Amino acid sequence: MLLYLGRTTYLCWGHLAQAVRSEDERLQFMRALQAIWSVHGRSVMAAFDLSPFPRICDLGGCSGALAKECVSLYPACHVTVFDIPEVVHTARKHFLSQEEERIGFREGDFFKDPLPDADLYILARVLHDWTDDKCSQLLARIGQACKPGGGILVVESLLDAEGRGPLTTQLYSLNMLVQTEGQERTLAQYQALLAPAGFRDVRCKRTGGIYDAILARK
Question: CA-to-CA distance for 184 and 180, rounded, in angstroms?
């Protein structure tokens, strides 16, 4: 597996910037993420009762796959998917039907642009892309936008307390090291990132799958 990652995956990801500029390549990438959440999305969205949060914002929500799971589970909620303009354009064109009135899209860069008002912000497979400093910047922006009583849901593949497993998550972390500036983290590491942004009462649910859920309140 390590040889494969080094000889194949690493070289492929070296062309990511060029690939996602093409709508066809971007569409393939978004379909891959859609497939991931078609398998794991319901378990992470059902890990906690999110019904107290009627307005939800999925930051970096891509095709809206998690948003669809959310509105299916919580009939009273409305989800805004916030992503860069190219992704939003592709999502509207290929992934969202007119019947899904409780899902909206908004274009923007979550490091720079104003975040949508929401009771709950979702970061699914986002923080593992970034260094601790970048994660802290993003979480601080969310903390400023989030009103008292609001929350944040972090969905990631969690390392165990010692950082020595699970094996799949360790391999993911190596993959993130060569793809991006990020890494997979332990629960304690996420707690350390969330606290300075004003988020407390951090709870974690292990889903039994690849991805776990962390819910924190402001």
Answer: 11
Q: What is the pTM of this model?
A: 0.85
Q: What does DSSP say about strands 78-83 and 103-107: parallel, antiparallel, or unpaired?
A: parallel
Output the CA angle 78-83-85, nearest 5 degrees. 120
What's the start-to-end Cα distance of the chain, in Å?
41
Q: How many helices (H) and strands (E) does the chain have?
A: 9, 7
> Strands 212-217 and 200-205: what pairing?
antiparallel
Write out the chain's pLDDT in tens, 218 residues: 445 444 545 455 555 555 445 667 777 778 877 888 888 999 999 999 999 999 999 999 988 999 999 999 999 999 999 999 999 988 888 887 665 789 999 999 999 999 999 999 999 999 998 999 999 999 999 999 999 999 999 999 998 887 676 667 766 656 666 666 778 899 999 999 999 999 999 999 999 988 999 999 99
Which string of DSSP letters, residue by residue, matches 19-43? Answer: HTTSHHHHHHHHHHHHHHHHHHHHH
Q: Is 128 a catalytic residue?
A: yes
Q: How far is CA 56 from the centre of its chain?
A: 13
